[in-house]
Each structure stands twice: as structure tokens, then as C-alpha cells.
Amino acid sequence: MSDEKPAREPIAEDARIDALEERLKAAREREEERNRPKVQETDANYRAGNRVLADLIGGILGGCVIGYAFDALAGTTPWGLLVGLFLGIAVAFRNIIRAANTRPEDPE
To answer: Using CA atoms, how far apart are residues 88 and 64, in angstroms rounded to an integer?
Structure first.
């Protein structure tokens, strides 16, 4: 819109029309600025929540896979899986607690 020429040239004799043209131009510029797409930055809380979720799921799944593999090799079904599950949960909670106790990054 800013590269379009006005429908008519401003009339130099009438100050009210010139002032109106300037106000319209300023309003168009403000509207273009307001309608520009904004760059979205991820919120620190959103990142922290994703990290907690990844730690929790990764710890549980990792413990289950290792426990199941141990069961398959040693033939101790279901004890290896259960021990691996509880160890995975313990590791996940340890990671979550460690992440919660660290200082947040300074945005500056």
C-alpha cells in the first residue's frame, strides 16, 4: 500500500487537506506496522515444560527398553523390566529436579 500513489495530489492551498493527507499517511504506516507478522520466540516456560516432558518420557521408555533387553538375555521376566522401569522413573525425576534447581538463562 505504501508504494501506491494517492488518488489525487495534495492541494497546496488548503492546509486542512494537507494535514488530513499527512494523518492518513501516518495511519497507513501504523496499520502496516501493526499487521506485519511478528517473529515468535518460544517462551522459557514452554521450553522448560518440553524438557520435563522429554526427560520423563525418555527416562521411562529408556528404563523399560533396558529392562526388557536384560529380561530377554537373562530370562528373568518380568523382574528386569520392572527394575528398569523404576530405575528409569528415578533417573527421570532426578533430571527434572536438577533442571528445576538450575538458574534460568539470562535473556540479555
So the answer is: 7
Contact assessment for residue 58 and residue 91, using Cβ atoms and an 8 Å cutoff: no
Q: Is the pTM of this model over 0.70?
A: no
Show the DSSP H helices in the chain as ranges: 15-35, 44-74, 79-101
pLDDT in tens, the chain (108 residues): 556 666 666 556 678 888 889 999 999 999 998 888 877 677 888 888 999 999 999 999 999 999 999 999 999 889 999 999 999 999 999 999 999 998 766 554
56: which residues sit within 8 A by CB, 6+ positions away?
A: 92, 96
Q: Which three cell numbers stand for residue 41?
A: 520466540
- 67: which residues sit within 8 A by CB, 6+ positions away? 80, 81, 82, 83, 84, 85, 87, 88
Of residues 4, 12, 62, the one with CA closest to residue 28: 4
